[in-house]
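Issue 218. Parser rejects a valid record. Input:
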Amino acid sequence: MSTLGNYNILVLGESGSGKTSFLAAMYDKLSVQKADTGFSVQLPEREQKKLVHMFREIEDPKRDWPPGTTDVREWELTCAIQTKIGNIPLFRFSYLDYSGGWISDEEKTDFSFYKVAEGANAILVILDGVKIFHMLEDTQHTLDSPLHNDLRFILPILNDHLSKPLHFVITKWDILEKKYELDVIREALFKIESFAAIVSMRNNQGSPTRLIPVSAVGNGFATLSTDQNLMIKNPKGIAQPYQVEIPIACVLMDDFGVFQRNNLSEKDKLDILKKRGFIGLIIQRLTGGVDAAIPYLPLPTDDSITRPALKLLVALTNQRLKYSQEYINEQIDALSENVKNKEEAYLKLIIQFNLLVEKLEREIPASYL
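Output the parser choked on:
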């Protein structure tokens, strides 16, 4: 029996930024495989119940928002694909949650974000949407805003990890989108010198950086209080998490994009259409080599589903060819119907991740920094 590898994601964000709410909403969205995502995430029963209770507290208009996290907890989620041959777990990813106040607490000496970052495969920085709103509203004091002060503690942690996937996740997007476009927020963030410097250095290294808007509750569920400091639930609001699945897809696909660019020659890329080594390399990257299945096998010579699905994956990854949405849906549906082994399950998952990333770039082009 194979052991799943583990992909470590460090989440950085100050107290109240929405780290735990984002996690709970992501689990609610992905706990059951749906057509628009094509995969699910799973937890041990006890942890699963905790996140379900937490999201119920979030989505209930009659209850207060959940209290902030006061300790440190590492959630280990398993990404899986449901097929005709059963549920196939593919890899695990860890989400480290903690009290956001620790980032700026000079008395907190028994926990080092710098050390944790060394062992992370990817980093998500959670930007509080309400603080961004305040920064944009108070244009005279942008460099002294609470958001800028948060970044003074967070950005130095990123300085030694420029090659790792890094995405800035804007929470509470439902509050911001009523008044501001992402282009305006992006422009304001680039006025923060250290933020602009981190993105510039990453671009020089060929490391993708994204600005991803998400909401744990979706549009119309909450509004800002009169003093614009608190989010007030709408008594008739219905929570509909927005884009909470996107950051995970982005960090994994951007990680492989950098890996492919640094480790595959042009000849290797051409060989993709002839060998399944490409899939083996992706599997190695996702699992740390623990479950690196079938590194080099010839593609089937018949008209089985693997050949067109693999061609589709190559096109999506290299962004050279464009297929119609109808063709893409046909291939995904066919692959879903005909998954026969773990390798093809990985192939389906990777295509789904690529499609989520492509959708983000098509619909919100300003998200790519």
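Fixed in the parser; the record now loads. The chain has two domains: 6-256, 257-361.
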